[in-house]
Amino acid sequence: MQADLVIRNARVADYRGEFEGGVAVVAGKIAASGESASLPRGHRIIDAAGRCLLPGVVDTHCHLGVAYPYAEDMRTETAQAARGGLTTVLLYIRNKQPSYIPFYSERRALGEAAACIDFGFHFGIQREEHIHEIPAIVAATGVQSFKLYFGYEPDNPIGIVPATDGWVYATMRALAKLGRGVVSVHCENTAIAAWVKKEIVASGRQDLGAYTESRPVVCEVETIRRMIFLAERTRCPLQLVHTSVGEGPDLAAEARSRGVDVTVETCPHYLTRTAYDGDLDMRAKISPPLRDEEQKEWLWRGLLAGKVNSLGSDHVPFLPKKGVAAARDPRRAAPRTPATATLEAQLLRARAALRALSAQGLARGRRGCRPGTHRPRGRASGTSRGARHLYLRRLETPRLARHDGAERAGHLRGRSGG
């Protein structure tokens, strides 16, 4: 057999383990893997020179088209995602029109024309009609993942329509009837946060730590408990997104022991930074906020104990807020997380800090197909994801990229390559 492509002399990592060798690709599919000497000849041969060959990263959580045109974000952000080792991104998108079906068709077409990698969607519930439309949405789009948002006051700077418990309960009942439906929830108690925020505003503080303290841990823990209760009663699968508190994975693990279908996502920034790091200011405003060292370490314990099921960047492209009003009150600035291109790099850096997260651990969980994802135009529909979703990386070489916040030709907005 002569392969189309052979990658040799790599440190290959997948969910089964690590070995020195490579892979052979035939007709877009991985046809063989093993020691380099055992691989067939190839029309094209890549000498990996000891680099790590990993499955491509799936970013389960990002937001594009929020502050910039959607088509532009799909071009710039997926290009940077590919540079950082990502081969699929899953977008949480919001639509305030009565129906999601035309919106989906438009966003899919624009994405296929602009994206550099595969992509898929979760839909945000932003009005009651969306709940009633769920069966039609699933039939027309195949999407069975829906998100509801707590933690946002009605006049929030992003324009998110906050959920009610009634919306969550009704959405869960609708999705429980489907074979693969799942509800994702942004867990923060809005009323508690609004009350504590008044106390912080009265203190005059405008530092990042003050923002975190205005949305305390109890806000997230309370809502996590409430959402698990509703998921258990409705028998609807629940995804706790961008979990920032250490108790979250513990609560989910306890619920799973009772048979509740609940999974946990966290983000690299919650595992690597705190609100009290000296080099951070209000430009690191995130929702939920960065926490303190205790919560960060608690999250790591949950991750290493297998209580965290996925990692997402929660990437939202924004430039720093400009203008007199924003300078006077940075609390009004929109939360943002430019993280897609550095998602893997952040975890590898943490691994180098003796977190005991192996390359095999990074690869675990990437197997299997991503239902409902779409490919950029021009790619053959028969191409195997197994072959396309690979990338090479030298793990031993840390890199630092900086950006001055200016937007200029030839430079992607505020993003750093992995």
Outline the structure in words.
This protein is an alpha/beta fold and 418 residues long. Helix content is 35%, strand content 21%. The chain contains 15 helices and 14 strands. An eight-stranded parallel β-sheet has the order 6-7-8-9-10-11-12-13. Strand 2 (17-26) and strand 3 (29-34) form a beta hairpin. The longest helix is centred in the middle third of the chain and has 18 residues, at 217-234. The chain starts with a strand and ends in a 25-residue tail after the last strand. Mean pLDDT is 85; it is low at 321-328, 352-357, 365-371, 378-385 and 403-418.
Kindly report the name of the CATH homologous superfamily of the largest domain: Metal-dependent hydrolases
Low-confidence parts? 321-328, 352-357, 365-371, 378-385, 403-418
How much is the radius of gyration in Å? 22 Å
Shape: globular
Helical content, roughly?
25-40%
Cross-sheet strand order for the largest sheet = 6-7-8-9-10-11-12-13
Mean pLDDT rating = 85
Main structural class: alpha/beta
Largest sheet: 8 strands, parallel
Strand % is: 15-25%
Count of individual helical segments: 15
Q: Count structural domains.
A: 2
